[in-house]
Amino acid sequence: MRKLFVIAFLLSLAYACTKEDKNLDSAIITGLDPRDCMCCGGWFIQINDSTRRFDQLPADCLIDFTAATYPMKVRAEWKKKDTLCLGDEIRLIRLLKD
């Protein structure tokens, strides 16, 4: 009976981890946006064959961007910003180094 409980616990843990990460897309942060314009700045990120841009990190992000080297493989949960300037802006909800 104890073995059955341990197996059930491990399966539920595996399911929970998979469920938690299913909203994360594989992505590559390719570098900083060096342009100098009102709508520029932030970082370029390639997600699903599209290059997008973000200018803020999620509050719980543990990636050290002061010592970052690019390209950087990450997993990201994101959505398009409600108000767009150039049309490629996204808001990162979660960002994990891959």
What is the count of structural domains? 1
Widest β-sheet, arrangement of strands: 3-2-1-4-5
User: Major sheet, described briefly?
Assistant: 5 strands, antiparallel
Question: What count of helical segments does DSSP give?
Answer: 1
- H/E topology pattern: HEEEEE
Give me the Rg, rounded: 17 Å
Compact summary:
By secondary structure, this protein is of the alpha+beta class. It is 20% helix and 36% strand. Strands 3-2-1-4-5 form a five-stranded antiparallel sheet, with no helix packed on it.
Which terms summarize this structure?
5-stranded antiparallel sheet; 5 strands; alpha+beta; 1 helix
Description of the molecule:
The chain has a five-stranded antiparallel β-sheet, with no helix packed on it. It is globular, with a radius of gyration of 17 Å. The protein is of the alpha+beta class and 98 residues long. It has one helix at residues 2-21, and strands spanning 25-32, 43-47, 50-54, 72-80, 90-97. It has one domain.
Q: Topology, pairings included?
A:
Elements: H1 2-21, E1 25-32, E2 43-47, E3 50-54, E4 72-80, E5 90-97
Antiparallel strand pairs: 1-2, 1-4, 2-3, 4-5
